[in-house]
Write a structure and sequence with these properties.
The protein is mainly alpha-helical. It is 64% helix and 6% strand.
């Protein structure tokens, strides 16, 4: 897992990943893993970054 980071730090990391095709693939993998682990699929019209941040915050991986 990722170390405990602030919300702005983690959001910036995810946005940087979104900028490249390889990073987009990593984000899709991460969202798929989180979906399987929580048994809650990403709601329609929710950005992948928001979905990941909400999951990680719920797991205590992100702080304010």
């Amino acid at each position: 897992m990722i170390p405990n980071k602030s919300l702005p730090e983690r959001e910036q990391e995810l946005r940087l990943l979104l900028a490249t095709p390889e990073g987009q693939g990593k984000l899709q993998e991460l969202a798929s893993r989180y979906s399987a682990a929580s048994d809650r699929p990403r709601p329609p019209r929710t950005s992948i970054i928001t979905y990941i941040l909400v999951h990680e915050r719920g797991q205590g991986l992100i702080h304010n």
